[in-house]
Amino acid sequence: MNLVELLYTSVTKFDNKEAMRYKQNGQWRTISYRQLWDYITQLAAGLYASGVKSGDKVAILSENCPEWVITDFAVLSLGAVSVPIFATLPADQVGFILQNADVTVAVVENTEQLQKIQQVWAQPLERVILLKDRVRSGDGRISTFSDLLAIGSAPTNTAPPIDVNAVSDDQLATIVHTSGTSGLPKGVMLSHRNIVSNVHAALTVLPVEPDDVSLSYLPLSHIFERTVEEYALLSTGATVAYAEGIDNIQENLKEIRPTILVSVPRLLEKVYSGVRAKLEDAPKPIRGMVTKAIQSQKNAGLSFLAADKLVFKKLREGLGGRIRAVVSGGAGLAGEIAHFYIKAGIPVYEGYGMTEAAPVIAANPFGASRPGTVGKPIPGVEVKLAEDGELLVRGPNVMMGYYKQPEETARTLADGWLHTGDIAEILPDGYVRIVDRKKNILVLATGKNVAPFPIENAIALSPYISEAILVGDGLKYVSALIVPDFEALQPMAGELGLSGDPSTWTANPNLRRLMQQEVAKAVGKFAEFEQPKRIALIPNPLTIEGGDITPSLKVRMKVIREKYGHLIEAMYAGTDYIPVSSSEPMPAETTRPTSPAPVAAEAPEDSGHDDTGGAHPGGSTIPPGAIVPGAFDNTQPPQNAAAASDTERAQSYATETAETAVTPAKKRRKAKLLIGAVVLLIVVAGITTAASEGRLQLNPRVAKDANLNGQIAAIGDKNNQISSVNHQIVQNLQQMNNLAGITGQLGTNLKGLKANAQQQGVLLGQLQNLSGKQVNLSQQLRGLSGTLTGDLSKIDANAETENQSIQQMSQSAGQLSTLAAALVQSNQNSATKLAKAKSDADQVASEMP
């Protein structure tokens, strides 16, 4: 069976059922299976009239939309080859794919994509077709989608009707270019058989029903989305709705309310990180209950009820409320995240594959998902491990080869097995666990091997970190490049003292300390040699446009090393880095200078010094002006207390007062202050009175040349200064009095909070009582169940006894019946004999005289 035949089977079976849903002018519109087929036949006729023939290469450069799918099937029906191109790629990468795949016709979404083509237009490209915009250039080589539909539906159309059986199963269907994380993309050749076999096998593991609805948001240019959403779902009669874009995904989920969601881990990670961030701000009792519920293996109890009400229910509603399966692929998903969604009532089924395998190799079976694994190989696919742990694959889904690259094909398909390049483990029950990409494994100078993926994944789970990239191949210890999640940090900008362009935030000491704490918390569960000792912050998000990541969101390590190699060098040279361990001081910073004297730093393990005592590049000392541990502690007093403003002193006093508002120590301090003030006033008043009464004796020996007027004037000035100081003291006392008033209010507020806490305690107590009652009822029910079971057992035993008695009676009846029959026979014999005797007797009587 070819791909066109696969769809046509659904068309004949489901006819007017809804196949697609898309939004136009703010309204959702639908396309039935029959309408979809009509569009495909019309476009195929239009392409045929434009010169497209079997074997031609036709590129599709567009975001997801019904026209994408219609174009793909129309091209396939002609025996031509689809060449998908990610709509986010820049012009130079688009040009490479066009030339590498020998594309003759390019179907593009709009004039924006057309401009990319025009920048790189070269042979053998002959024609461009616009899906949505109109032609304004006057270039005869450019036509529109609607033009081709008109040609295909016109009475003058001479194209032969689609023969769904005309295309061979082994014919080339598509050339899909790999992401090219370490070099130029390679064109993967997939046949109709490769993809159809993959669809059939995958649907046995994760079945789809005709009433299922899926929201498509991943690019159809990715073979994972294309195989699942376009081929597999439409082959079952399901409905596919196309999201308006990633920015509208939340709104579209609530509108469509899908039952199936095909996703990549990044979306699931972002939602999970958001939940964790909100939990951090929740009251400690709530945070503790929800955390306990997430970590528990049971979906019961008070903690689970609270977590379901506060978190899980909202999460299900956010996904539309009808999700029965989330299919995750394209990259590894942390087991912690999968477990969280399953706990929330949202089953996540992680799979594994690659473009070269069309793409699914393994998947978690429906109803038997095991977080932390990628499931079992799908039917028809064989897997085994090479000596170095690389996963090898063989099956009908494995590619035909790389387009125009026979040497690379031979290397990847050596010995008849697809060499995946992934290090894996195959568990005894057949489940597969992917360790990491073979080329990503870090081999340290100490001989230890480190798989970056689990560590990077753990770090990226922080709600404040977008990406984590481990480095350290050939070096003594592991370090990491960290990309902060600048969007998630926006609400905390004021608290952290962040302002201006986010690209400058990475120099902020508060942000650096936060990143240090988040990384340290994330990597604590790993072996010592696996934990990064130092980190550096990348000041910008990684983007597809910048070449940092692929369209499928994989990090391009080659680009990262070229762009941020200076950060890596600075980390290992000890000139600019953030130590992961809080016991190691920060290197020099200029925002908050401390003592100018240099302080020796404690070097990280395996990084500071070698056995000869010579300094290793990984070692470091803290230069003048370095920040010491605790420098970011806001409770530390300023070094020069006199420099603090009155406002700062008042705020400090208010903070101290609020913290001790209801303690006896606070009352004692306040009393001491009042007593001291009274004593001071008494002393001043006594001195003033004594002076006025003449009891205060001054030195009677006055120099003859003393300038009394000058001295009196000076004394007047001093008195004025004293008055000014006294006035300032009075103001400060007034401020203290005001703060004392605030303290009372704070005390009231604290009492209110205490009352609320007590009320919550009562409610929790009530819930606990209800839970206890529920337990008691369960125990009573269990007892009744036991009694009922015993009674049923007795009834069963009595029934058995009665059954035996009936059998015995039946046997006895049978015996009696036999005896009765024998008796009847005996009576008959006797009657016969009596009759004969009577006959004989009569004869004898007649013969007697």
TrEMBL record:
InterPro entries registered for this protein in UniProt: AMP-binding_CS, AMP-dep_synth/lig_dom, ANL_N_sf
UniProt entry keywords in alphabetical sequence: ATP-binding, Ligase, Nucleotide-binding
An example Gene Ontology molecular-function term: long-chain fatty acid-CoA ligase activity
Record-linked CDD domains: VL_LC_FACS_like (cd05907)
PANTHER family, sorted: AMP-BINDING DOMAIN-CONTAINING PROTEIN-RELATED, LONG-CHAIN-FATTY-ACID--COA LIGASE
Leading EC class: ligase
Protein's UniProt name: Long-chain acyl-CoA synthetase
Residue segments, region Disordered: 582-657
Gene3D superfamilies: N-terminal domain of ligase-like
Residue ranges the record marks as coiled coil: none
Record EC number: 6.2.1.3
Domain AMP-dependent synthetase/ligase as annotated: residue spans: 10-403
Pfam families tied to this protein: AMP-binding, AMP-binding_C_3
